[in-house]
Amino acid sequence: MVDGQLRTTDVNRIPLLDAFLSVPREAFVPSRLRSLAYIDEDLDITPPGSGERRFLMEPSPFAKMLQLADVGPADVVLDVGAGSGYSAAILSLVAGSVIALESDAALADQATARLAELGYDNVAVVQGPLPAGYASEAPYDVIVLEGAVDEVPQPIFDQLKDGGRLVVVEGHGNAGIARLYVRQGGSISGRRGFNAAVRPLSGFRKEKAFEF
Q: Which residues of 176-201 are buried (b: 16+ CB within 10 A; e: fewer)?
């Protein structure tokens, strides 16, 4: 995966590559998908009976997003839509601490158990609505949204520290674009990173306005 998917898409930060080499991706997917854990596709990790489909983002765009955010060892990171905990495990190896926010109770329980079992002890899994972020531990140095959204809600931007970075894929399908946002004082500036077709993140669909 690292040689065939990450290095070939210009992911070159050594600590990040080491993290992907270290974390067992197969431990964070359903047993039926373990033989497919390292393919370059999004993997369906939706728990039985869940009303919203949830996906583990494919390795390359996820790694490129973290590289774009320039996550470092002193950073406090909010991982929005942490799913079964894989993204938080990767982040735990390149950041100082991670708040892993998950809205689905079954996924949050899976993430808590698996991260503890594997010894990722600088991660706290919390449950709540994803578009609200997690204000009680804010501000954050880095915020990562684990899927495509129509737009980033203002409450999440408000949780960025001065100088903090947020990475997200905006738009869906082949129209998706990974963007980096940076807070400087009271303003947020953004720039395009790269094209990325990833699965949508639950709860971030913009309501269509009525038009005459």
A: bebbbbbbeeeebeeeebbebbbbbb
Does 208 score more than 60 pLDDT?
A: no
Q: How many angstroms separate the CA atoms of 63 and 53, rounded?
A: 22
CA distance 198 to 109: 24
Whole-prediction pTM value? 0.94
**CATH number for the 2-195 domain, one of 2.30.40.10, 4.10.520.10, 3.30.750.24, 3.40.50.150?**
3.40.50.150
DSSP state of 2: I
CA pair distance 5, 11, nearest whole angstrom: 9
DSSP string, 130-147: GGG--GGG--EEEEEEEE
In the chain, the percentage of residues whose pLDDT exceeds 90 is: 88
Q: Is the dihedral of CA 156, 157, 162, 165 positive or negative?
A: positive
